[in-house]
Amino acid sequence: MGAVCCKPDPIDFDGEVNLFHFVLLRSVGKGAFGKVRVVQHKQTKDLYALKYINKAKCVKMKAVANIVQERRLLEEIDHPFVVNLRYAFQDDENCFFVLDLMLGGDLRFHLERLGSLSEEAVRFYTAQIGSALAFLHDKRIIHRDLKPDNILLDEKGNAHITDLNIAVHYSERRMLTGVAGSMAYMAPEVLAKKGYIYTIDWWSLGVCAYELVFGRRPFRGKTNADLTYSIGRDPLQFPDGAEQKCSREGMMALAGMLERDVTKRLGCRPKNDGFEEFKKHPWFASIDWDTLEDKTAVSPFIPDSKKANFDATHELEELLLEDNPLKARKRNPNQDLSNLSAEMRQMEEQFQAYDFRKMKRRSYYPHNQQIISTLTATSSQGVIPSSRSGTPVIGMESMPGARADYNETSSIPPPPIPTTKMRPLDKGDALVAEAL
């Protein structure tokens, strides 16, 4: 008699979602303790981006609290211009986020390849991201790390915000003071440590739009102190020949978002009045907001579908260098939570399963309080990982690959730098500082 081959257990698609529900496809990204790969749901055949985070590394890097917070915030969100959560689950080794698939690359990738984008394309993306920010702020969520690395394009060229790793809920009654994010995109009120709310995201959007149009950031410095001073004090200037790249209306919009007085900053009027003011700005006169938000408007920039819009070396690393490649594993049915560390137990209990087909989205506000532990972020959540940021971070030297287009050192003494505790991050991660 021939040997009887063991048949795999049937997959229970009616039960709780797990990794057995997905076909694992190519690896496309890597962060400090998380990786990203394309997956296909075995039943629906839909493609997604799977971000998976090693629990042991998460504990070692003291990032359990904000992995749980990111999972909770993503459950609240469903918007056309956000990389939305579709499933969440865990096994004994990893926590998993299954997210919308983005095939067009992040804006950092395209900015480095092209040098700059057309004003028409930047206006289109600024409108889309503005719509997403208004939605997040209506949910009382601040992103805090908006930059080209964290804006992903789909195959049709629509822009989406990703990476809520340091996002938080906010309240006007108790403003935030933590210095968190990528320094070059931080608003003056963050660096001043006098308290801030959602208005900081509109400043970051202004920095992104300026950089995409002109290929350089509006405020620069050779050192962290210089950059801090520039963001807080230097007048906004446009490069020589700016009028050849950007209309007067466009420069007015950029200046509006980069207004240091938050009561005058574009997009920052109380309640929803700020976004209405934003939409009515002359720069957006050509935008049809209805077709924009239902994604029937044609993007001025379409990513090249014949080229890989991500670093192909991630696939080789997974094949050749990974000691413990990802595969579906059954959970230990006899696991005793009392034998786990407090951090591991927190993940087991608080990183709950989510299935968008079976569960309604809900808000954890006001119970989801700000995370105040030292933060270390993973790479972007869509298919395309963040590109090299090179953004100076408080308390850290410039990262490898940093841009060299900074201003000369200012002779005027800069304001004191807030005391911070930093952790070095892998290239491509969100650059994060959290004030002590």
UniProtKB/TrEMBL annotation:
GO terms assigned for molecular function: ATP binding; G protein-coupled receptor binding; G protein-coupled receptor kinase activity
Listed PROSITE patterns: AGC_KINASE_CTER (PS51285), PROTEIN_KINASE_ATP (PS00107), PROTEIN_KINASE_DOM (PS50011), PROTEIN_KINASE_ST (PS00108)
GO biological process: G protein-coupled receptor signaling pathway; regulation of signal transduction
Domain called Protein kinase: residue spans: 22-284
Residue runs in coiled coils: 330-357
Keyword Lyase: no
Disordered: region residues: 400-436
InterPro entries named among the record's database cross-references: AGC-kinase_C, Kinase-like_dom_sf, Prot_kinase_dom, Protein_kinase_ATP_BS, Ser/Thr_kinase_AS
Binding site for ATP: K51
Keyword Kinase in annotation: yes
AGC-kinase C-terminal domain: residues covered: 285-366
SMART domains linked to this entry: S_TKc
Stated family: Belongs to the protein kinase superfamily.
Listed name of the protein: Protein kinase domain-containing protein
Taxonomic classification: Eukaryota, Fungi, Dikarya, Basidiomycota, Agaricomycotina
